[in-house]
Amino acid sequence: MKIAIISDIHGNMEAFEQVSADIEKSRVDAVISLGDHIGYGPEPERVVTRIHQDKITAVQGNHELALIEPDYLAWFNRAARKSLNITRKLLTSRSIDFIKTLKRFYTAYGCRFVHGFPPDSVLTYLFQLPDEAKILALKKLTEKRCFIGHTHTLDFLSIGRQGFNCGQLKEGLNKLDNRRKYIISAGSVGQPRDVNNKAKYLIWDASEDTVELRQVAYDIAAVVEKMMAAGLPQEHARRLW
Fold first, then answer.
1. Which of 61, 168, 189, 224 could serve as 237's disulfide partner, Cβ 3.0–4.6 Å?
2. The pLDDT of residue 232 is above 90
3. Is the pLDDT of residue 67 over 90?
């Protein structure tokens, strides 16, 4: 069983299309999206429509939460609030209705999928937590594997008889230890923040217990042009490079 895990597309259809094409070549059994399909990027409607049409299992991110519950806009900085207000105008009522159906987490294949941090937070960042909180979360996990988004980086935590460990995924194949529990951050399709501007996603082989980090190039200049045309914040466009 091979599962493609995507996260933080952020309205970047150029990146999403290239990642989708790469996933098709990989012959996976399912695709799961960890939220933040919208925000920052210029084509949220196309992204949400594709998620819905392709029947991709998706969970709620903090940008979806703020879209459907505006009180959460105060959690964002000025530029992100501006981006979300523009994003709302770019979405059809049908897409907003679909976003309202997204749950905070999903469990399948002996694994948990959540945007921020387990068990069900869409707001908590991995880097915000002290090691004690991370260890406690790993111990409390019912599932042996948990995939998260939100940070746009490629980190992992694990715990077992040899204690607590953390690190970063390497490009290519990463072998997991079936005696340990893991929380793994899936990076970002639409706005990576790991000093490499390629779109990132993971393929988890549940049978072999491996995680493959895939990196896909896309036309960044085309996305930046669309962002400027939509009046989106320049700082979000600059981050793509």
1. 224
2. yes
3. yes
Q: And the tokens for 168? A: 């970063």
CA atoms of 79 and 163, how far apart (whole Å): 41
Q: What is the C-alpha to C-alpha distance for residues 27 and 122, in angstroms, rounded to an integer?
A: 29
Please classify residue 178 by burial: count the beta carbons closer than 10 Å to its beta carbon, then call 0-12 exposed, 13-18 middle and 19+ buried: exposed
DSSP state of 176: P
Residues in a beta bridge with 31 = 4
The dihedral over CA atoms of 33, 153, 213, 178, expressed in degrees to the nearest 10, equals: -90
Asked if 58 contacts 36 with a C-beta cutoff of 8 angstroms, the reply is no
Q: What share of the chain is helix, strand, coil (3-state, %, to 5)?
A: 35, 25, 40
Measured from the Cβ of residue 34, the count of other Cβ atoms closer than 10 Å reads 32
Domains of the chain: 2-238 (3.60.21.10)
Say how many C-beta atoms besides its own lie within 10 A of residue 113's C-beta: 28
Please state, in angstroms and as integers, the Cα–Cα distance from residue 81 to each residue in 44, 66, 72, 120, 236, following that order: 15, 9, 10, 23, 12
The confidence score (pLDDT) of residue 195 equals 85
What's the rounded mean pLDDT across residues 206-216? 96
Identify whether the C-beta of residue 191 lies closer than 8 Å to the C-beta of residue 239: yes
Closest CA to 57 of 17, 112, 135, 120: 112
In sequence order, what are the residues at sequence separation of 6 or more whose Cβ sits closer than 8 angstroms to the Cβ of residue 189? Answer: 6, 7, 8, 9, 10, 12, 15, 16, 19, 199, 200, 201
d(CA 75, CA 87): 17
